[in-house]
Design brief:
Layout (H helix, E strand, L loop, with lengths): L1 H21 L6 E8 L5 E8 L4 H12 L1 H11 L7 E6 L2 H21 L1
Length: 114
C-alpha cells in the first residue's frame, strides 16, 4: 500500500506542477515534494521559489487561493475516489542550505586565519 501512496503523491505532484505552469504566479514556483496521508484525505504540497524567503510565502498564499483549480485538474487526470485536501506549505530547504553553507564557509575562513 505504501508504494501506491508514494506513486499517487508523485502523480499529484506532477499534475500540480503542470497546473502551476499554466497559472500566473508572479515568480518561478516549483513543487519540491508531496506527502499524502495514509487515508488519502490530505496532501501536503511543499512549494519553493527561486527567490526563496518571503517570495515563497506569498506564492504559497496565492496557491492556497487556487486550490480548487488544482483539485479539479487532479480529479480530471487521476482516477481517485476522493480527492485529497491540498495543504500548501513553503519549503525553505534552500534557505536552510544557504545558512548552513555560510556557517561552514565562515568556519573554514576562521581556520585559515589561525
Amino acid at each position: 500500500m505504501a508504494h501506491n501512496i508514494k506513486r499517487l503523491a508523485e502523480d499529484i505532484k506532477r499534475e500540480i506542477s503542470v497546473t502551476i505552469r499554466e497559472l500566473d504566479t508572479g515568480s518561478i514556483v516549483s513543487v519540491s515534494h508531496c506527502e499524502l496521508s495514509n487515508d488519502l484525505s490530505y496532501c501536503r504540497v511543499y512549494i519553493s521559489t527561486f527567490e526563496g524567503g518571503e517570495k515563497t510565502v506569498s506564492a504559497v498564499e496565492r496557491l492556497k487561493g487556487a486550490s480548487g483549480i488544482f483539485k479539479k485538474q487532479i480529479n480530471a487526470r487521476i482516477k481517485m475516489r476522493k480527492i485529497p485536501e491540498l495543504i500548501f506549505l513553503p519549503d525553505n530547504s534552500l534557505d536552510y542550505y544557504d545558512k548552513i553553507s555560510g556557517i561552514i564557509d565562515e568556519l573554514k575562513n576562521n581556520e585559515n586565519e589561525e
